[in-house]
Amino acid sequence: MLRRVVIGAAVVCLMGVSAYAQDDTNGMAQEEAIENSECAQQLTSAQEAVQDKIDANALSEEEAEKIYLLLDEADALCTEGNGAEASAKLAAVNKMVGKGN
Predict the structure, then answer these.
(1) Residue 4 predicted with pLDDT over 80
(2) For residues 36, 40, 41 and 43, what is the CA-based torsion angle, rounded to 10 degrees?
(3) Contact of 76 with 92, CB cutoff 8 Å
(4) Residue-by-residue DSSP string for 32-85
């Protein structure tokens, strides 16, 4: 009987530890999701600004290629969860299209 009580207590302790670990993981996932959401919003905003310039024929093909390369790099950085570097790339794009001056 004592053996069953000890095993039951051990199982309860293990379940508590795993639930705590799960909560911590969920908190980190939520922070990453918020950061990725902000990054995605910045990316969308930059893409819209670029599209506006292209629609107005205000960019040369060379400029557009450079900008699209930066947008691709920023998109990859956002996907990897590296919002700071992505923001730097997007700032360069915004400067190139004259947004935020």
Answers:
(1) no
(2) 140
(3) no
(4) HHHHHHHHHHHHHHHHHHHHHHHHTT-S-HHHHHHHHHHHHHHHHHHHHT-HHH
Residues 6 or more apart from 18 whose CB is under 8 A from it?
Answer: none
Q: Look at the block and give the residue holding tokens 């996907």.
A: 79
pTM of the model: 0.64
Beta-carbon neighbour count of residue 39 at 10 Å?
24
């190139």: which residue's tokens?
Answer: 96
Separation in Å, CA 6 to CA 15, 18, 20, 59: 14, 18, 21, 73
Tell me the pLDDT tens digit for each residue of 8-21.
Answer: 666 665 565 544 45
Residue 9 CA from chain centroid, whole number: 41
**Cα separation of 96 and 89, whole Å?**
11
